[in-house]
Amino acid sequence: xxxxxxxxxxxxxxxxxxxxxxxxxxxxxxxxxxxxxxxxxxxxxxxxxxxxxxxxxxxxxxxxxxxxxxxxxxxxxxxxxxxxxxxxxxxxxxxxxxxxxxxxxxxxxxxxxxxxxxxxxxxxxxxxxxxxxxxxxxxxxxxxxxxxxxxxxxxxxxxxxxxxxxxxxxxxxxxxxxxxxxxxxxxxxxxxxxxxxxxxxxxxxxxxxxxxxxxxxxxxxxxxxxxxxxxxxxxxxxxxxxxxxxxxxxxxxxxxxxxxxxxxxxxxxxxxxxxxxxxxxxxxxxxxxxxxxxxxxxxxxxxxxxxxxxxxxxxxxxxxxxxxxxxxxxxxxxxxxxx
Amino acid sequence: xxxxxxxxxxxxxxxxxxxxxxxxxxxxxxxxxxxxxxxxxxxxxxxxxxxxxxxxxxxxxxxxxxxxxxxxxxxxxxxxxxxxxxxxxxxxxxxxxxxxxxxxxxxxxxxxxxxxxxxxxxxxxxxxxxxxxxxxxxxxxxxxxxxxxxxxxxxxxxxxxxxxxxxxxxxxxxxxxxxxxxxxxxxxxxxxxxxxxxxxxxxxxxxxxxxxxxxxxxxxxxxxxxxxxxxxxxxxxxxxxxxxxxxxxxxxxxxxxxxxxxxxxxxxxxxxxxxxxxxxxxxxxxxxxxxxxxxxxxxxxxxxxxxxxxxxxxxxxxxxxxxxx
Lengths: 339, 325
Prior knowledge:
The structure holds 2 protein chains of 2 kinds.
Chain A: H1 2-20, E1 30-37, H2 43-63, E2 66-73, H3 78-90, E3 95-98, H4 107-116, E4 120-123, H5 129-132, E5 138-142, H6 145-162, H7 164-167, E6 175-181, H8 187-202, E7 207-214, H9 219-233, E8 239-242, H10 245-258, E9 264-269, H11 272-279, E10 285-289, H12 291-306, E11 322-324, E12 327-331, H13 332-338
Parallel strand pairs in A: 1-2, 1-3, 3-4, 4-5, 5-11, 6-7, 6-8, 8-9, 9-10
Antiparallel strand pairs in A: 10-12
Helix pairs in contact in A: 2-12, 3-4, 6-8, 9-10
Chain B: H1 4-25, E1 38-43, H2 53-66, E2 68-73, H3 81-93, E3 98-101, H4 106-114, E4 122-126, E5 136-140, H5 142-156, E6 162-167, H6 174-189, E7 193-198, H7 205-209, E8 220-224, H8 227-239, H9 241-246, E9 247-253, H10 257-265, E10 270-274, H11 276-291, E11 299-302, E12 304-308, H12 315-321
Parallel strand pairs in B: 1-2, 1-3, 3-4, 4-5, 5-11, 6-7, 6-8, 8-9, 9-10
Antiparallel strand pairs in B: 10-12
């Protein structure tokens, strides 16, 4: 009697639980990716976004899987970004790609994603390691900031070794430079500054810093700073070392307004306007991440996560979490030679 | 010591609790009130959304207010009507409650809708397409924009000047076609000479403008048919101050950020703009209402304006051109 009752009870439980999860999981034919950008007006991020959209279309055509990208601009507000992430999750996004506003404050995004079981691919602004270690469904795609900085410094070192007078313009034996830095809270900003200058020193360029300032990656802020420096130091400035292309272009704007020529300006990112400046000979050089590879890695990894697949082999992950995009030096001379 | 009857009661009680728990967890007793989410797909005629910045802001605003899930979809090839029809059918199949379409080929879209292959409401943007299966339209007077730009050219240029109509090769979008029609009619009436210059070669208009002999003696004014053409031409003039001095004016249509920046810098003389934020907002609103079978207004006409640099700081235009989300 007891055995029969227990059996009956178990059967009832199975029947009821069966109502809940009876649907067999079907193979996905569409994926939805929620993308939140820290600032949509950042030129580099905008470049990545455009390529990402193209890659999504390619993926759709090649694999026959519908890819819906929900792209939102957080406009520099972590709070807005958190709300966007919440909305992405409520809209049923399969995976999130987040370019964090505040890399130190990614925990809210991670909490929400973990609760909903939605993987997150962070990019461009690296969350702290402690956060990244919280879940095995968190990934980061970016560039190795130290490598970037070393390459930036190296292009000046190479030019100095070939043609010292092209860098030491006034021939006083010292290359006087000004430095334009990105946000103080961005990991790349600190590393780029440190290693770029270190590489110049290690390469034997006799440098002397005139001044420097934080222009928060922005062209207009950099332009305003450079204008002040030109008024204060005038012809003493021989080299402008910038943490990114937008700020380098801001410096070029100020140089053009002041009618100053011959100052070498180096940037980082290889943005479309940056490359145009390079082609026109306004900028000496830049370090460019392979943006096709960068955006491709974001899309392939996100799509793989959404489909429950293993990370793509063509983008090998370091420690199962990080992918570092390859970079290259682009200098004015090379562009001219290629043409 | 519990008796046999007591054991049965206890067992029944436990069974009752288990059943109650399972019923609650499967929503059989407690049902969460379902908030309806409108599934709306917006399918444009272009491969990129560069010219839809303000439109998307309006669209996003409406999506949040109406609890709509709006998917913004671009084509693989610009103005590919076949692909747009595939996407329309795909989105319908994937559960869209309503569609907002900027037709790549208006005749094809209207024809397909008339065949009743699309059963969800469709809102068309652009000119005033009507027909069976078209639930609503949001009309922008592109022809009027062309006329307005041409009239301003007639007012400001000396007689003897030539107007170059910079145009894209291949089939034009309906917006460009109407814009050029309007401009052409006004220029004909004003008896000013104009020539259509079609973008050609790798360097595009830069190549055409690089030949000084091409520049007419009486001066030249450029009227660009599309936002891309206008942005490209403005970029060429900005990079070449010498050329800029020889061109009496650059006109066109559109309110993308690069165009407004060129207008602010004085590279572009004047542009015709529409309230694209409102178009985005109302397209989603009309789609959401149509999906509820709300039989409201079916055609909405948006105003267009001709603006110059001095108008950019006018509060009314500023609010329209730089909307805050």
